[in-house]
Write a structure and sequence with these properties.
- The complex is a heterodimer of chains A (517) and B (100).
- Chain A has 517 residues and is mainly α.
- Chain A has 24 helices and two strands.
- Chain A has one domain.
- Chain B has a single domain, classed as Helix Hairpins, CATH 1.10.287.
- Helices cover 78% and strands 0% of the residues of chain B.
- Chain B is built from three helices and no strands.
- Classes of the chains: A mainly alpha (517), B mainly alpha (100).
- Chain A: One of its GO terms (biological process) is ATP synthesis coupled electron transport.
- Chain A: Belongs to the complex I subunit 2 family.
Chain lengths: 517, 100
């Protein structure tokens, strides 16, 4: 096989599976069960993950693979994110196989469930298409490819956010996500355009080379700021977080689990590549911006979460805070910053996907349980699910023997090693604030029900959903007890761009800007 | 020949108009149009820089931006229609179900 095809094999597999699922969905009669399509999608994600592991062996043997004239680079960094995204997709799909009601019970299910069910095949395909885009974001070293990957992932998630068709809140969430997402994309694109103006290229290696010799440093600075704004929106870092609570509240719970982890991990991967590979020379400029984003996200996220009554909104604010913790890792120097940030994305993914899957199981497609009051006393009727949710919340707090603990530990020690002890102290302070609202939800679960009984969806947890939950729980536990294997992978992952022989733009072109000819 | 800076300033003004319209306008369709304006400002910047550097890659980027903008428009308008069907309004002031 040509190196080009080997380099994008996971993406090819995902795309083909998604197309297959869509075609099969179209050829099935409406009302026929589509659960099998979900399993096909899970198999596709599994195959993509396996091919990524195979790529890792090739990378170990003969160094990073570059393909398509240096636009795609497969290294330990991209493989790590490929595996993470594939795992998130598998768990999300396992958890949502039966999220949309099965046809036999259709009559007794709500209009929302029925409408969503007729499109469930598209749901599986869109998740895979989105994952393809995210994977492309992590393995591209050319900003054009990054942009296309970003859009593939974003457009798929816009649709997924509005998947509870016929419900006003879901459509509204999709609209808000779409409008603010596109707004952010425009900033990101403008940043790329200015970087192109400053260096004459959109390839990360060429930008890195051009940044030191550019005659227009103002353009370079503006481009970094614009790219930070664009990615800041995507990772929901304050002050670009306004969409997050609304979208997480309105979107279907399993989709929120997916879109609060996988696209964010991919966006952080892009940010790491851009900041540490393309513009390391401008560190003095972007470091204050990152510090501001990190501190603002931690405080706005945690203080905002204190005032929430809606559980999904609460977790949305918590996700803003976690973006702030993650950004703290960026203050360290190259290998450690990347390793701790990568580890945190994995830890956060495990616990957050898990938490949202539990909410999926508890409240069902109609989301009968919304506020903390609705969750009060859930432990009585759903002891296992409540216990699992409490465990994921413990991990989100950062209690030892959970993924969240090591995630925070590495991130804050990276900040200390970067010389920003005060940032680590602020982070720990914020973890203390965060305890309040996580513990409030936890105590609510184990209190006496407010309305006599809990109104949640009482459907039994299907074996596939239980498998997904078990996977998320075990991952959270494993990352908290044996972080070693993942840690050794992320420590190798620190991305290095291979300088490509670029058609170096002539310096006369720069002169024309200054001369204004 | 028109100096390159003129194109860049025009693009920056267009982009700013887009940002301002996005923040000020109350109709969803108009907000969506302002995003398109921002994207086209970016396209203009790309073309100007491509001309300056004598590099065709900037112009190729513009084609991809246009293709993606078309895809985004298809999805965006579909979402707007879905919203209109459930809410019978296109004013962002009345799209306010999601709040605490």
């Amino acid at each position: 096989m040509s190196p080009n095809l080997i380099a994008i094999l996971p993406e090819i597999v995902l795309t083909l599976t998604a197309v297959l699922v869509m075609l099969a969905d179209a050829s099935l009669a409406p009302g026929k069960p589509r659960r099998l399509l979900g399993w096909v999608a899970i198999l596709g994600a599994f195959a993509a993950g396996s091919f990524s592991l195979w790529q890792l062996r090739l990378v170990d043997a003969s160094g990073p693979i570059t393909a398509y004239s240096g636009t795609v680079q497969v290294d330990a960094f991209s493989v790590f994110f490929h595996l993470l995204i594939a795992a998130i997709v598998m768990v999300t799909l396992l958890g949502s196989l039966d999220y949309f009601a099965p046809p036999a019970a259709m009559a007794e299910h709500s209009e929302t469930a029925r409408l969503a069910y007729t499109h469930v095949g598209e749901y599986f395909a869109l998740v895979l298409f989105g994952a393809t885009g995210m994977m492309f974001m992590t393995c591209s070293v050319e900003l054009l490819m990054v942009f296309i990957g970003l859009e593939i992932s974003s457009i798929s998630t816009y649709i997924l956010a509005g998947f509870r068709k016929g419900q006003g809140v879901s459509a509204e969430a999709a609209l808000k996500y779409f409008l603010l997402g596109s707004f952010a994309t425009s900033f990101f694109l403008y940043g790329i355009a200015l970087a192109f103006g400053a260096t004459g290229s959109t390839s990360i290696a060429a930008i890195a080379a051009g940044m030191s010799t550019t005659h227009t440093p103002v353009l370079a600075l503006l481009s970094v700021a614009m790219i930070l704004i664009g990615i800041g929106f995507k990772v929901s870092a304050a002050p670009f977080h306004v969409w997050t609570p609304d979208v997480y509240q309105g979107a279907p719970a399993p989709v929120v689990g997916l879109m609060s982890t996988a696209p964010k991990a991919a966006a952080f991967a892009v940010l790491l590549r851009v900041l540490f590979n393309a513009v390391p020379t401008l560190r003095a400029t972007w470091l204050p911006l990152i510090l501001a984003l990190s501190v603002a996200s931690m405080f706005i996220g945690n203080l905002g979460a204190l005032m929430q009554r809606d559980v999904k909104r609460l977790l949305a604010y918590s996700s803003i805070a976690h973006a702030g913790y993650l950004l703290a890792a960026f203050t360290s120097t190259h290998p450690e910053a990347v390793a701790s940030a990568c580890f945190y994305t994995a830890a956060y993914a495990a616990m957050n996907v898990g938490a949202f899957l539990v909410i999926t199981e508890l409240s069902g497609v109609d989301e009968t349980m919304r506020t903390i009051d609705d969750f009060t006393g859930a432990a009585k009727s759903r002891p296992y699910l409540s216990g699992l949710l409490a465990f994921f919340l413990c991990s989100l707090i950062g209690i030892p023997f959970t993924a969240g603990f090591f995630g925070k530990f590495y991130v804050f020690s990276a900040a200390v090693h970067g010389g920003f002890t005060w940032l680590a102290v602020l982070g720990l302070l914020n973890s203390g604030i965060a305890c309040f609202y996580y513990l409030r939800l936890m105590t609510a679960l184990y209190s006496r029900p407010l309305h006599g009984e809990v109104r949640g969806a009482m459907a039994r947890v299907t074996p596939s959903a239980a498998l997904g939950l078990a996977f998320a729980g075990l991952a959270t536990l494993a990352l908290g007890i044996f972080p070693g294997p993942v840690l050794s992978l992320v420590q190798r992952a620190a991305p290095k761009t291979i300088p490509i022989i670029s058609s170096a733009p002539s310096s006369s072109a720069t002169a024309s800007l200054t001369n204004g000819q | 020949m028109v100096p390159i800076a003129y194109y860049l300033i025009l693009a920056a003004i267009l982009f700013s108009i887009g940002v301002a319209a996005f923040l000020i306008k109350r109709n969803v369709i108009t907000i969506f149009m302002s995003i398109e304006l921002m994207l086209n400002a970016v396209n203009l910047t790309f073309v100007a820089f491509a001309h300056m550097w004598h590099q065709v890659s900037g112009q190729i980027f513009v084609f991809f931006v246009m293709v993606v903008a078309a895809a985004e428009a298809a999805v965006g308008l579909a979402i707007i229609i879905a919203l209109f069907r459930t809410r019978q309004t296109l004013s962002v002031d009345q799209i306010n179900l999601l709040k605490d």
